[in-house]
């Protein structure tokens, strides 16, 4: 079976890429500065950052393919205006394309979107189309809170988002729901904002009727679904209290959780309460938690070890590692089939 | 052993109490209206609402004592101004005192605070003192987000909160960290805002050094600690990444989780990863999830069943049911000892 990691970010991009970003930020403070051009980065610079990090760990840990997108915490849609976000997003996605072209067997592209607070999501459609149809990417990361921890957009079930969903359906690509950095001091990015966003999105789906309007729309909620599996009884009970249909019909035909849960008991719970067809292998390495767990001697984010340790049938592991990802990301499946995989 | 439920709210208060609130809200729209007086409620009205609900379920389920506070979702600190919050809070706490006086063997008081957005937390000290020293309550509910889902206060580790913590320490009472209703349409109250607040508070404690400044300050994080136990590896790893001390020393001498997790696998995880000395029995009945789980035939919020089903020693169950609560709420312990319990 193939081991497909559905959740990887280019967290180790060459310094020149950040220098481009720094020039963008400098220009926000001093608009008389010239608009910077994206960094000129050599193939060797990319190889250096990938081979020592994501590719090394992919090989060390025994994964085959990573769905690879720009660094989530650096999307920072709340910084600057739409033009800032648009230029930054394009540069980030182009850099992912470079990685994919250098290592086509190991990485498949997922795009960032040029979201910006108060800007219609329809303005992100062109970049989605470019990345899917021109760059060959297979999905996108959708930020439910471009304000960065102030939560000023309407819920994901609001008509506000519908134009974009229409395009996702037309292109047959899913979105991972992924916030970025937090500019609200209450929320640590990876310790609170990320997990809260996952939980929040799921509850919005319970309250709304989004998948009645878009029966084939698909979302991956990362970080093991936030708090949801741990509180699965609460969510089943709330759906009942709110007179919503059962979650299996109302939400779980369209919503999937990754396995970015960094200890064995968490993964055990996830697999215990969530239907295996709704779980996609993911690690988010090299990401939020890079250290070694002193209790196990292994990296916290080496989530493959937790899946491997599960007492479930090999065929069930294959659903988590490969088959669910191929079903949720049909363009990935097409691409793999073209390689006889 | 005693079965102490650390988390109960008066969610079934007599209609007249809500009518008082409605008059308050009407006056916010039309300040020419007279300031309403708290409702006149008879003992029989209180008996009716308690005996059919919280007391009935307490007996049916086999609990002995509930730490009882005003309805959390109705605190609504974001509504109106400080005077509104203050009058409402006093009426709510006085009503809890009535319940405790009618059923002193079954209920022990925990108070709401007259918080209001932008108002110094020091202004809540007088009501805390009144409830603890005059009404005989044993703890309080502290709202980390009086703005109701906009998160405009500083983090709980900020000096902003210190004057109140000083009083908590002086009175030797813990706070349950409990948000109220959400006026941010992104956050369903009990399905997102509550759980997010729990997760957020815990991460704030990791980032900060609050318990260095207040070594005896104690918090109960409800709803099983939000997402924290499910992501315990993430939090251990983040503490390490942020070069904080190990959680056992840095946070878990001062922070406790209740058992308001409404299915067996969630409780199993909680007890598996969190030290038993940090877990207090709680149900939050009659609360967010009032239905019967079709998978078990029992009420979702009958959390005693999940604890009873654990394969741990009776003495360990006693820690969860009784001993931890007596340690975290010393005034409860004093009160019980005076009754030879």
Explain this structure to me?
Two copies of one chain form a homodimer. In chain A, helix 6 links the parallel strand 4 and strand 5. The first copy, chain A, has 341 residues and is an alpha/beta fold. The mean pLDDT of chain A is 98. In chain A, 44% of the residues lie in helices and 10% in strands. An eight-stranded parallel beta sheet of chain A has the order 1-2-3-4-5-6-7-8. The first copy, chain A, contains 14 helices and eight strands. Chains A and B meet through helix 7, helix 9 and helix 11 of A and helix 7, helix 9 and helix 11 of B.
Described by the principal axes of the CA atoms, the overall outline of chain A is: globular
Stretches with pLDDT under 50, minimum 5 residues of chain A: none
Number of helices of chain A: 14
Mean pLDDT of chain A: 98
| Main sheet properties of chain A | 8 strands, parallel
Write down how many β-strands of chain A occur, each being a DSSP E stretch of 2 or more residues.
8
Oligomeric state of shown chains = homodimer
**In whole angstroms, how far apart are the ends of chain A?**
9 Å
- The Cα radius of gyration of chain A reads 19 Å
H/E element sequence of chain A: EHHHEHEHEHEHHEHHEHEHHH
Proportion of strand residues of chain A: 5-15%
Q: What is the share of helical residues of chain A?
A: 40-55%
Structural class of chain A: alpha/beta
